[in-house]
Design goal:
This protein has 720 residues and is α/β, with parallel strands linked by helices. Helix content is 35%, strand content 22%. It folds into three domains: 197 residues, 2-Layer Sandwich (Endonuclease, Chain A); 281 residues, Polyphosphate kinase middle domain (polyphosphate kinase like, 2-Layer Sandwich); 179 residues, Endonuclease, Chain A (2-Layer Sandwich), CATH 3.30.870.
Length: 720
């Protein structure tokens, strides 16, 4: 069978050439699982990757699967980019997701648990506890667990209880004093943790002279089962089985009909708790009669039941194990570097950040470069008597945000004019953002909530400073959120600049965001939804034309996802023209690389490791006049069409060379954490060739950041 039998080489835009988005997302989760398999990762980090996989899959079902369920319920038959109806997509998802969930739990039970035992971390079943341990656990149950438990009966006088989203529960079968069989539900409290610490004791001294601490845990739901008699006094307990519920959390805010966006979002958050169940997770030991009770009363299709033969039922609960403090079982501690301009002291004085920015644009690469300069930039601006105004966009800032604290201080304590867009529609951060928005409003900050029909995802911070003869704008533009916690965990890029043209563009964009400006053209910035898509597409077409003229033509994109069909079609055409294309994609890709006649000049690389790859970089060779853009936008329909996004240019030749050679080329050399994508959507791990030293991009950025010897060359673009 030839590629032309499987794919449409003559028509690059054919759905046959597209990988289903949902299956591509699940393939990413398989790569996360691959990090749990990687024996080069410390043991507790491998456990953490399993926990991350569990959280990711929970969100996948809440949002992606939930959205498909809703479409099926509404009779929607619109086709996905790869030509599948919603029901067909669900049918394709179920076996893949089920296999992934089972594989992860089997791996934990059969492979990781014995390794944890060797390191003194013991996960025990209640039945295996000693009498002394059971006494300690009973005391824990009486003091900590019992007060928060609320058993709920189900009978003609008691309606079936509401089962909250993401909750772990016990289905209990019992017999009352009259011999009547009853059903009850007990919620396993999340706030306590799904694992009960039993005891800690010093172990025997190892050969290396260390004395490890032993940690003993038992599953909380097993503890509750063992003490159900205290909840149902006078009744005979027949059996109890855990189950886990995922509800649809994919909601569509009817903004046009809303008079108060904040109030509408708060209502939608409340509705999320009562969405239809899209996944019911049980152990395969649950009897059919009990499962049937759940199916009928939760209104769950049997196809959406996933039976697990291995523990744990809730994979994300392993984060409790992964959080055990152990110097040898975690990645070594890493302290981000302070940038050079901060370290330099001239004549006994440290130059101000304003001076440093005026000397030239500054690029920060997190988490390898500290996030402190960005925070300190804003803190200094808040207190600087020459600063007259501060403007910012906030998407996900987290709790205890120093960024928000500085904005509050600037307005409340120093009387600055402060304008902030707080995106209330940032999924699963809505409540936090509503809280911040109200706090900012209370001190007099001008707060806006975004656009009807559009999320504001761009990362912008502008400080306007009176410097006598000029009102200068200092700008921070980034690829990641203004979140001091994720800045230590996510790989991102930020640029500090006082470029007048960029400043003018950012001012106009803030006028669009906060006012009624309808400006759609910008001098340097590419802004979605007005100019960004066309800007990317025009530059791809330019590489195609250059190649057709016999010139060299290269494209390198680094982003989180590529699922936009028009962009994919253009990249196919670029490959057909002979343009070499490298895509460094952390997450899902709907493009099929390496197909002769269609995409043999395209290579897709995915790098997973200690840090979450999150930056977006768009590089175009442009006949030697290289162009580099960075910013907030991925190559997805939502980013290009339904969000406020920004890509900003890197124009300084030294910075272009830095991004090209010291960032992009570093990823291209990775032979330990890089995975190459095959035409069918699967990936394989890159391994060092004979005589080649192992090379990790993330390790290089952390510990070996010396300049690489050569510039970008043709062989970096060779496609395997």
């Amino acid at each position: 069978m030839t590629p032309s039998d499987l794919y449409d080489i003559e028509n690059p835009g054919n759905p046959a050439n597209i990988i289903n988005r949902e299956l591509a997302k699940l393939e990413f989760q398989r790569r996360v699982l691959g990090e749990a398999y990687d024996e080069n990762n410390p043991l507790l980090e491998r456990v953490r990757f399993l926990s991350i996989l569990g959280s990711n899959l929970d969100e996948f079902f809440m949002v992606r699967v939930g959205g498909l369920h809703l479409q099926v319920m509404q009779g929607v038959r619109a086709l996905s980019s790869d030509g599948k109806e919603p029901a067909e997509q669900l049918a394709a998802i179920r076996p893949v997701a089920g296999e992934l969930m089972q594989e992860a739990r089997e791996y934990f039970e059969h492979d990781l648990m014995p390794l944890l035992e060797e390191e003194g971390i013991h996960l025990q079943h209640y039945e295996s506890l000693t009498d002394k341990q059971k006494e300690a656990v009973e005391q824990y149950f009486d003091d900590i667990v019992f007060p928060v438990l609320t058993p709920l009966a189900f009978d003609p006088g008691h309606p079936f209880p509401h089962i909250s989203n993401l909750s772990l529960n016990l289905a209990v079968s019992l017999i009352d004093q009259e011999g009547v069989q009853r059903f009850a539900r007990v919620k396993v409290p999340d706030a306590i943790g799904h694992l009960v610490p039993i005891k800690r004791s010093s172990g025997g001294v190892k050969k290396d002279g260390t004395a490890p601490t032993h940690h003993y845990f038992v599953w909380l739901h097993e503890v509750i089962v063992a003490h159900l008699n205290k909840l149902f006094e006078g009744m005979e307990i027949i059996e109890a089985h855990p189950f886990h519920v995922i509800r649809n959390a994919d909601y569509d805010i009817q903004e046009i009909e809303s008079d108060d966006l904040m109030e509408t979002i708060e209502e939608e958050i409340r509705k999320r708790r009562f969405g239809p169940v899209v996944r019911l997770l049980v152990y395969d030991s649950m009897p059919d009669h009990m499962l049937e009770t759940l199916l009928v009363n939760l209104r769950v299709n049997r196809r959406d039941v996933y039976k697990m033969p291995h523990q744990p039922l809730v994979l994300r609960s392993l984060s409790q194990i992964a959080s055990i403090d152990s110097r040898t079982l975690h990645f070594p501690r890493y302290t981000p570097r302070e940038p050079d301009y901060i370290e330099k002291i001239v004549d006994g004085r440290r130059p101000s950040i304003y001076t440093a920015i005026r000397k030239g644009n500054i690029i920060l690469h997190h988490p390898y470069d500290s996030f402190n300069p960005t925070v300190n930039f804003l803190k200094k601006a808040a207190r600087d008597p020459n600063v007259v105004a501060i403007k910012a966009t906030l998407y996900r800032v987290g709790r205890n945000s120093p960024i928000v604290s500085a904005l509050l201080e600037a307005c409340r304590d120093y009387g600055k004019q402060v304008a902030v867009l707080v995106e209330l529609k940032a999924r699963f951060d809505e409540e936090s953002n509503i809280e911040w928005a109200r706090m900012l409003e209370q001190v007099g900050v001008h707060v806006t909530y975004g656009f009807v029909g559009l999320k504001t995802h761009t990362k912008l911070l502008m400080v306007v400073r009176n410097e006598g003869d000029v009102m200068r704008r200092y700008i921070h533009l980034g690829t990641g959120n203004y979140n001091h916690v994720t800045a230590k965990l996510y790989e991102d890029l930020g640029m500090l600049t006082c470029d007048e043209v960029i400043g003018d563009d950012v001012s106009h964009l803030f006028n669009v965001i906060t006012g009624y400006s309808t400006k759609t053209d910008y001098q340097k910035l590419l802004v979605a939804p007005s100019t960004l898509r066309k800007g990317i597409e025009d530059r791809i077409k330019r590489e195609i034309k250059n190649k057709e003229k016999g010139k060299q033509a290269y494209i390198i994109f680094k982003c989180n996802a590529l699922i936009d069909p028009p962009i994919i079609e253009l990249l196919y055409k670029a490959s057909q023209a002979g343009v070499r294309v490298i895509l460094i994609l952390r997450g899902e890709s709907s493009l099929r690389p390496g197909i002769k006649g269609l995409s043999e000049n395209i290579r897709v690389i995915s790098v997973l490791g200690r840090y979450l790859e999150h930056s977006r970089i768009y590089y175009f060779y442009n006949d030697g006049d290289e162009e580099v853009y960075m910013g907030s936008a991925d190559l997805m329909q939502r980013n290009l069409n339904r969000r406020i996004e920004t890509l900003f240019p890197v124009e300084d030749p030294d910075l272009i060379k830095y991004v090209r050679d010291q960032i992009l080329r570093v990823y291209l050399r990775d032979n330990t954490k890089a995975r190459l994508m095959k035409p069918d959507g699967s990936y394989y791990l890159v391994k060092p060739q004979k005589g080649e030293k192992p090379f990790s991009a993330q390790e290089h950025f952390m510990y070996h950041r010396e300049l690489l010897e050569r510039d970008l060359a043709d062989d970096d673009f060779e496609v395997d």
